[in-house]
Design goal:
Layout (H helix, E strand, L loop, with lengths): L8 E5 L4 H13 L5 E4 L8 H7 L3 H6 L1 E3 L2 H4 L5 E6 L9 E2 L1 H13 L4 E5 L8 H4 L4 E4 L11 H16 L17 H17 L6 H17 L4 H20 L1
Helix pairs in contact: 1-2, 1-7, 5-7, 8-9, 8-10
């Protein structure tokens, strides 16, 4: 049975190919959505091609609600969004996917039921379908090639929904089993290199030596290193010195 997580219903209106329905189910489940409704699918329902394409998201197809028209498919919802890439000439709010899902999340938190309509692959939603919606969702696509595959559009809206209800980590560092090097460890590394480079006559001419040392210290500080990195760099310098001494 569907999860008890509060979420919008994704309503596929007159989808034409079972493969696209299956791909849409997979896209929904990628982002934790499992309220699929299917309005008048062209090739009937259930559809074996949809099952094959859904892969691990077949449960959504088993639990999908079948409806005869948009009124039935979204009739129990108090707020309906219609996705479209074309200018409709209808007086309605036009929202970006991000803004639309923020609105959906706010309304669902307030106890409302929300539906998102997705049109058939060939031409999208008809004006009669869009007229039933409270707002339009317009994706900022290339105007010379505005058509989105059904599953692509579902994936996009699912991602924006997930951004509203789950913490998104925008950047992280995978340290594995390591730790970041401390400032003291980096300082010791810098001193090690400075000492050995001084002995090798690297800081030349003398008038530029201090500036070169400052630049080298600045280089170390810009490099965020792990303890393993620091140990490796110490080892590199030690081995170079040993090799030189053997020669």
């Amino acid at each position: 049975m569907p999860s008890d997580t509060a979420q919008p219903a994704f309503v596929l209106v007159r989808p034409q190919m079972g493969e696209n329905i299956g791909a849409a189910a997979r896209a929904m489940w990628n982002f934790g959505l499992d309220r699929m409704r299917i309005v008048a699918p062209r090739d009937g329902w259930p559809n074996p091609s949809a099952v094959a394409m859904a892969s691990g998201a077949g449960r959504l197809l088993d639990e999908a609600v079948l409806a005869g028209d948009v009124a039935e498919g979204a009739g129990d919802c108090t707020y309906v969004l219609a996705t479209t890439a074309r200018v409709r000439g209808l007086t309605k709010p036009v929202l970006s996917p991000e803004r639309a899902m923020a609105e959906a999340a706010a309304r669902i938190r307030a106890g409302e039921k929300v539906a998102v309509l997705f049109g058939p692959e060939r031409a999208g939603l008809e004006n009669a379908d869009v007229a039933r919606a409270n707002a339009i969702v317009s994706v900022p696509v290339n105007p010379e090639f505005p058509s989105l595959n059904l599953a692509q559009c579902v994936l996009l809206m699912g991602y924006e929904w997930r951004r509203q209800v789950a913490e998104v980590v925008h950047e992280s560092d995978d340290l594995g089993r390591g730790d970041w090097a401390s400032a003291l460890e980096v300082e010791r590394l810098a001193a090690h290199y400075e000492e050995r480079l001084e002995a090798a006559g690297f800081f030349y001419p003398p008038a530029k030596a201090e500036g070169m040392k400052v630049n080298l210290r600045n280089l170390w500080s810009r490099m965020r290193m792990t303890r393993a990195d620091v140990q490796m760099l110490h080892g590199i310098m030690r081995q170079m010195v040993r090799w030189k001494e053997r020669g």
